[in-house]
Amino acid sequence: MQPLPGDPSGDLFWPDVLACERTVLRFTAAFDASDLDGMLAEFAPDGVWQRQEGAVRGHDGLRALMAARSPSLLVRHVITNMRVALVRPGFATCTSYVTVYRHDHGGPKPVLLGQPTLVGIYHDGLHKTERTWLLSGRSVSIDLKQV
Questions:
Q1: Please, what is the average pLDDT of the chain?
Q2: Peptide bond before residue 71 is cis, with ω within 30 degrees of 0
Q3: 5 lies in a domain?
Q4: 91 pLDDT band (50/70/90 cuts)?
Q5: Alpha helices, H only, 81-131
Q6: How confident is the model over 56-63, as a mean pLDDT?
Q7: Beta bridge partners of 32
Q8: How many domains, in total, are found in the chain?
Q9: For 27, phi and psi rounded to 5 degrees?
């Protein structure tokens, strides 16, 4: 198997890139679906998610975050332009554009579509385990935000 063109280390292969992208997408889709088990499967036990409201630390932090979430909150992330890079063997970053829609509707779907809540860039850190890549860190740079 050939390493990615332009990867000076020669350690990042297409299956790693796809696995990193899938980890990011599965974690985010699980968050949108309020699927805590799905989130835990993609997030490192000692991972840190830097949110606007503060840091979410590890699996216990994810559990607390989701327990406090309104059951009628509808969230959808649109993630594009994913770019995976190897930091060192077993550690990678994934940078992607994100558009977030949020609405606490309290009623039946579909809800009226409003403007995005925010547009920005996700900065994700990942590390490789024996089986898979896990999200070990996430932060967002916000470019546009609803007022």
A1: 91
A2: no
A3: no
A4: very high
A5: none
A6: 98
A7: none
A8: 1
A9: -60, -45
25 lies in some domain: yes
| Averaged pLDDT, 99-118 | 88
Residue 110 lies inside a defined structural domain of this protein = yes
CB-neighbour burial class of residue 77 (10 A; exposed 0-12, middle 13-18, buried 19+):
middle
* Domain hosting residue 107, numbered range: 14-145
Residue 3 scores a pLDDT above 70 = no
pTM score: 0.90
pLDDT of 96 above 70: yes
Residues 135, 21 contacting (CB under 8 angstroms): no
In a domain, 63, yes or no: yes
CA–CA dist 121, 118 (Å, integer): 10
Report cis status (omega within 30 of 0) of the bond before 116: no
d(CA 88, CA 111): 44
Angle at 26 between CA 74 and CA 118, to 5 degrees: 45
CATH of the domain at 54: 3.10.450.50
Asked if pLDDT for residue 12 goes beyond 80, the answer is no
